[in-house]
Design brief:
Number of strands: 2
Number of helices: 13
Helix content: 55-70%
Strand order of the largest sheet: 1-2
Structural class: mainly alpha
Strand content: under 5%
Distance between the termini: 56 Å
Largest sheet: 2 strands, antiparallel
Shape: elongated
Length: 403
């Protein structure tokens, strides 16, 4: 059936080229439920995630997850190349395999051989086209192969440039909000004279970061699968921590201008919702609550108390002025309802844990030791004897970073 072979060959080439155009060149969200790239990631991510989630060691599990993004890119390119080879081979077959093959192999095998060597521009010359249509198709396929190579060469720097810009801000957040980052730590570490201005500037930067994340990851959803350098860090945990911080500033923190927090919250939520829609995810309503109504005291058998009260107690101890009216907890809950369902859905799909509101086991952070040394220097300059034992830089422990 030459006509069927011709139709399938043309359809295969069109599907591959249109999918590559939407994935690489088109600077906006690609549409279509049956796109080749979308089906590829559905077919490969689920089994990969299913297997890797069962790795016992956290570090090895994160390492295995980190392989998926780069490997999927390589296999996607191979899929496109294979689709083009099959498409042109079917067209050659529909034309009656118009080639002189010195090996005298099967006609269909010759068609695939010519298609493969032409797409990758080998030009061996052992199989020669006999008519004008075959020669024209050989030239067309060779140009398509060169074009695909040129597009891919420009695709890699764009992807890794966007990834690098994303990770710089995530790394900078480490000293400001801990690892993993939490809203509580971010607010406590800015509870110093002039800290409000520094926090406002930080929120401005993260508003822009959220906009850049939205633009780059909508155009190239593959970047969502690229993991951060450290085990306790991810773009999702950083985005969620910024949303948590903005929600706290809006719902229950006194003495801080909330205008910038509102702008950052709006932009960060926009990015979170749109990225969830990229994967056709709906907000989760049955996920474990990150700030439950009651929790037992750590290390004791006392009666449970409100996590919200514990959160606000930690903020007060850190020097953050909080609202203590009867509706502050309800306001925070309403703010959380606007984004946590989407964050939980992305967390479950991408296997990226969300940051806690309250860190159960505080990590050792090098900024604390540096701050202690600076306090000792200030005390020495003011002729006040230091009260803490001097800790040298050599004893700093960065155990929250797992490569």
């Amino acid at each position: 059936m030459p006509s069927v072979s011709l139709a399938f060959g043309i359809a295969c080439i069109f599907v591959v080229l249109f999918d590559a155009f939407q994935t690489i060149i088109l600077p906006r969200r690609a549409t279509g439920r049956f796109r080749l790239t979308r089906l590829f990631y559905i077919a490969t991510w689920r089994p990969w995630s299913f297997v890797v989630r069962r790795v016992c060691t956290v570090r090895r599990r994160e390492t295995a997850f980190s392989f998926y993004g780069p490997l999927s890119l390589i296999f996607l390119l191979a899929l496109w190349a294979g689709g083009l080879v099959v498409g042109f081979a079917l067209i050659f077959h529909a034309l009656g395999s118009p080639f002189n093959d010195t090996m005298k192999t099967d006609a269909m095998l010759s068609d695939f051989y010519v298609s493969g060597t032409t797409l990758f521009t080998l030009g061996l010359g052992d199989v020669i086209p006999r008519d004008g249509w075959a020669r024209a198709l050989v030239i067309l396929e060779s140009g398509t192969g060169l074009g695909l190579l040129a597009v891919v060469m420009g695709y890699f720097p764009v992807l890794y440039g966007a990834f690098s810009r994303r990770e710089v801000s995530i790394s900078l957040l480490d000293a400001r909000a801990g690892s993993p980052p939490t809203a509580t730590e971010l607010l406590r570490r800015h509870a110093y004279p002039g800290g409000d201005d520094a926090l406002t500037l930080l929120l401005v930067e993260w508003e822009r970061w959220s906009a850049e994340l939205l633009e780059s990851h909508i155009s190239y959803p593959l970047l969502c699968y690229f993991r951060s350098q450290h085990t306790n860090q991810s773009w999702l945990s950083a985005l969620t921590a910024v949303l948590d911080t903005s929600a706290l500033l809006i719902a229950g923190v006194q003495g801080h201008k909330s205008r910038q927090a509102q702008l950052t919250f709006a932009m960060a939520r926009h990015a979170l919702v749109d990225l969830a829609q990229i994967f056709s995810l709906t907000p989760l309503t049955n996920a474990p609550d990150r700030l439950p109504d009651s929790r037992p005291d750590a290390g004791s058998h006392s009666s449970p108390h409100s996590s919200y009260d514990q959160l606000y107690a930690l903020l007060c101890q850190g020097g953050v002025s909080v609202c203590r009216d009867g509706n502050s907890a309800e306001r925070l809950r309403q703010m959380r309802d606007l984004y946590e369902g989407y964050a939980q859905a992305l967390s479950q799909h991408l296997a990226m844990p969300l940051p806690p509101w309250i860190q159960e086991t505080p990590n050792k952070d090098n900024w604390l030791a540096v701050a202690k040394l600076r306090a000792q220097a200030d005390a020495a300059n003011s002729d006040t004897p230091p009260t803490a034992k001097v800790q040298t830089i050599a004893t700093l422990v960065d155990d929250h970073h797992d490569f």
